[in-house]
Amino acid sequence: xxxxxxxxxxxxxKPLAVRGGHDGPELGRSIGTFSLMMFGVGAxxxxxxxxxxxxxxxxxxxxxxxxxxxAGLAAGLSAICYAELASAIPVSGxxxxxxxxxxxxxxAMVIAACVLLEYGVSSAAVAVGWSGYFxxxxxxxxxxxxxxxxxxxxxxxxxxxxxxxxxxxxxxVLLCMLLLVRGASESARVNTIMVLIKLAVLGLFVVxxxxxxxxxxxxxxxxxxxxxxxxxxxxxxxxxxGLDAVSTAGEEVRDPQRALPRAIMGALAVVxxxxxxxxxxxxxxxxxxxxxxxxxxxxxxSVILQNITGSSIPGTVLAAGAVISxxxxxxxxxxxxxxxxxxxxxxxxxxxxxxxxxxRTLTPxxxxxxxxxxxxxxxxxxxxxxxxxTVSIGTxxxxxxxxxxxxxxxxxxxxLERPFRxxxxxxxxxxxVVVCAYILSGLPAVTWAIFGTWLAVVLAFYLLWGRRHxxxxxxxxxRGEGV
Amino acid sequence: MTIVAxxxxxxxxxxxxxxxxxxxxxxxxxxxxxxxxxxxxxxPLSGGVDREYAAYLADAATxxxxxxxxxxxxxxxxxxxxxxxxxxVPAVGRSVPGTxxxxxxxxxxxxxxxxxxxxxxxxxxxxxxxxDRLLHSSxxxxxxxxRGFRAAPGTQVGRVTVGFRGDPASAAALERAxxxxxxLGATLRVATLGVLGRTMYxxxxxxxxxxxxxxxxxxxxxxxxxxxxxxxxxxxxEVERVVSxxxxxxxxxxxxxxxxxxxxxxxxxxxxxLSRVFLGSSAAKILRHSPVPVVVVx
Lengths: 483, 298
Fold this sequence. Notes:
The structure holds two protein chains of two kinds.
Chain A: H1 6-11, H2 16-19, H3 33-44, H4 52-60, H5 64-88, H6 95-102, H7 105-142, H8 148-151, H9 167-182, H10 184-211, H11 225-236, H12 242-247, H13 256-285, H14 294-309, H15 312-346, H16 365-381, H17 384-412, H18 427-440, H19 445-469, H20 475-478
Helix pairs in contact in A: 3-13, 4-11, 4-14, 5-11, 5-13, 5-17, 5-18, 6-7, 7-9, 7-14, 7-15, 7-16, 7-17, 7-19, 9-15, 9-16, 10-13, 10-14, 10-15, 14-15, 15-16, 17-18, 17-19
Chain B: E1 2-7, H1 14-27, E2 30-37, H2 48-75, E3 86-92, H3 96-107, E4 111-114, H4 129-137, E5 142-144, E6 159-163, H5 168-184, E7 187-195, H6 208-229, E8 239-246, H7 249-254, E9 262-267, H8 281-289, E10 294-297
Parallel strand pairs in B: 1-2, 1-4, 2-3, 4-5, 6-7, 6-9, 7-8, 9-10
Antiparallel strand pairs in B: 5-10
Helix pairs in contact in B: 3-4
């Protein structure tokens, strides 16, 4: 086999015929605008709303409502850019696959680093948040709380408490792993039920929250200034990762040119409405300063309800709903993570064991177990404060690369058929980059350091291992003669 | 080699009997049709009523055996000329599957045949209560006919299709299927079925189709490997390898072409109790959607 020059390898793109080389049926265009929109709502709402207020309100104060709008605007712009790539490149899969087909191997690896961080760390972050609600629930119902040693990570964050391990978070991740190993259908059924519960308990929070609404609590609306708004928006941003999945359905949507933007915009409108309502209800129900209290850091919305009603019942109901529904978020993010690693394993960017499917359950078992163990370790030993920001930087990085991808592809492949085109080109993708960069500017230096280190690790792995084992090194695969 | 076919009390099972005759004819082996009849209560001092009941059951058994013998002669008049030694015998027992297991042991049988259950679609395998129990406890392969199965005299099994998913249990099932092919003089078809179930994201969005494709590729490679591992002299001359995918099991099974001379072999679960037949979830789903009779091998 003739060795490929280094530069050529970094820039080479995966031919579309490799993906279409199977003799299986093509995906049918069966998803309509409304169902796609509802899917986006289900995949996004609740990703962080149960505990993000406690992270974001201390940064932005009552202006957290604006932070939600800024984060939503960036997510919406990015989702539109996703939609163009999704419709132009008729493959299923994640951002990593789009990048590999459109922008080359090196960019694909950069995006892989971003989305792995996004999905992997968000699974851990949500599991840590779940742990607080779980403790709140057992405390309210059984009068038993796990000791601090077993419910808080050992890594210190500012003046926060430390323990030995966040055991509930580890158990949650391992439970999700068992479900995912059992099968995709079983996981999907459980997930659907949990999403419905999630929407119901958020509705409960909004209704009860508005009953204690006091407009005075919005007095010092801009007290934290633009920096506070951008810092909170950066923290919140990970809540919107569900929207990228809407755009990746391009291959199966009826009339994608109309349906994709409408579904994205519709889902975004619904999601932002829900988020803003929850934020207004929360901020209107108690002073912004109280969001920093240690008990709210553990199970924020639930504690707010208890403070409002003076009864533990609504808070317990919300905590129970949150315990069930946040489970689904960990499940879905872990699932997304395993499928990205699966795609990388198939491309030879990771050992082929990551793309091996268990014949009994039809799931990538090895891949799922490895992901779950790593995520469980992160969830068990790292405080959530570090995790939220790291998720956001991964998401923002991926969104920026996608927006740049739209610009690059328009220039390098102007003749490519694009059933959906970004409206307002080139303003929209440029604006996406600008808004995402603005939000990124709000992230602390330690997050940048973590991100930089992670990117370096992924690229080092690629240079030392991945580029030698890439399937495109096989001349037949490089010509697109099927897999 | 002996085939045991089970007939439940008062239910002349035409499907099972017809299929047992076809298998015996194809395998040129002994057929023992067992009519399970209830026995009297084992009272130490039987009174008049008990003796009357015992006599009634004995008469009923004789009538049942005669009826089944006549039915078998009607369904497969050519068994004698095909060199098949067929017998219809009564066996006393309160549990049909339990009694059949005793008969399998007593006759040193290598296969037990049952008809389809009464509640299910015509032309498909319907697992009744007796078959269900046998599928969980039989030490020998269990054949289940499709509902309404009939075979014209002289019909033989022409092709054996074995369900293969690429794990050690499948390899074992393949070996049993190959042995069956040799005994039957039939061709072999190795089939892998892939089903794309529901996912958390809309279908295929997050690469579930990729997972399925990878599995089918993997299983195809495993088919080649498993066939290559078999001794050359036992592999049938005609071997076909196929893959079928669908959004559910009905679509995947129905995607394969089937003929009336087909027989489907599925392996039991690798999690089964020792080597006994214990159906895995995939095997159970394939079995329920099969349009041809199925043999489940332990």
